[in-house]
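user: At home tonight, take the chain set out below, taking as long as you need, and be ready to discuss the fold:
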Amino acid sequence: MTIEATGGQGISADQRAWFAALADEMIPSAPTMPSATSADAHRSGLDAVLRARPDLLDPLRAALDDFGTSTACAGSGSALGWIRSGGHEDSWGVLSTVVVAAYFLNPRVCAALGYPGQQAIPVDQQPDDIDPQQLDQVRERGPVYRPTPPG
């Protein structure tokens, strides 16, 4: 795994390294899917997420510092161990959001999932699931309701 030497998007090199470690523990490689760092989630993916959601920068930095300090002191380096130790719910929320978003921004990940991305799909004037003959029966029946009391 190669970590960018300098931080981009306001993320230090240490924070980026912690993010990469977390991301790979959360999303390891599988036979048909790349790991988070293989999908470049810790570099271009992270930078793209922070460009799209700059409001996540400060909470992400705080969460990464929390993780880095906790795991450095404990010597475990395990994201799941850190979460299980308790008291990190807010940090976990922002970290899991950013890791997943950074991962799924990779075109190779989308292709492996068979997801073509957002596409414009024209809407028919009349949806296929409405049978006009059934609507005729409803119209012929007339209104069926109980009037509300006045006042």
Summary: The chain has one domain: 13-119. Residues 13-119 form one domain. The radius of gyration is 24 Å. Helices lie at 13-26, 41-52, 57-74, 79-84, 89-104, 107-113, 132-141.
